[in-house]
């Protein structure tokens, strides 16, 4: 059987399976993906130059297929050496087909390329949203091998309409996000 894209499965197969699993009577009540945010924090000591910031923006655009925006500081904080208007991050928000294509590539091609990958931790934020931290951007096949000073990490936030962690986990499992297998604890009967 040929692999169907995540976009196709999210339109038909996944909502039907979630309706049965969550025992919902209305298919519009099942959780669905709202958006995916790809974010890179720009440490001024390491990523302060315009060349590296431009490289990061081009790499994010190559990975996501969408041009990112730079996020600036809203107020000065002297303890963190942050001034108002200083560039602090680079981010893009994916929705619709771009979001589905990015997640499909992330789950099918990128995560299996991580060395000694045993699965993602199953920690949600309490509202059914999930975040993935990626240490090195070179695991994406679109990105050529970077120089040592141009390696950066990113955060991928998957925002859902789930409302609870259990409903969010059910959606993520239907999408086939590879969570770590938790070992079952053997409890010896007490004498």
Q: What is the arithmetic mean of pLDDT?
A: 83
How big is the Rg?
A: 19 Å
Sheet with the most strands? 5 strands, antiparallel
Structural class: alpha+beta
Order of secondary-structure elements? HHEHHEEHEEH
Strand order of the largest sheet: 2-3-1-5-4
Low-confidence stretches: none
Proportion of strand residues: 15-25%
Measure the end-to-end span. 53 Å
- In total, the number of strands is 5
Specify the number of helices: 6
**What is the overall shape?**
globular
Share in helix: 25-40%
Quick overview of this protein structure:
It contains 6 helices and 5 strands, in the order ααβααββαββα. It is α+β, with helices and mostly antiparallel strands.
Structure overview:
The chain is α+β, with helices and mostly antiparallel strands and 191 residues long. The chain is 31% helix and 17% strand. Strands 2-3-1-5-4 form a five-stranded antiparallel beta sheet. The protein has six helices and five strands, in the order ααβααββαββα. The protein has helices spanning 6-11, 13-21, 44-47, 50-64, 96-110, 165-175, and strands at 33-41, 69-72, 87-94, 130-134, 154-160. Helix 2 (13-21) packs antiparallel against helix 6 (165-175). The radius of gyration is 19 Å and the shape is globular. The longest helix is centred in the first third of the chain and has 15 residues, at 50-64.
Task: List the SSEs and their pairings.
Blueprint: H1 6-11, H2 13-21, E1 33-41, H3 44-47, H4 50-64, E2 69-72, E3 87-94, H5 96-110, E4 130-134, E5 154-160, H6 165-175
Antiparallel strand pairs: 1-3, 1-5, 2-3, 4-5
Helix pairs in contact: 2-6
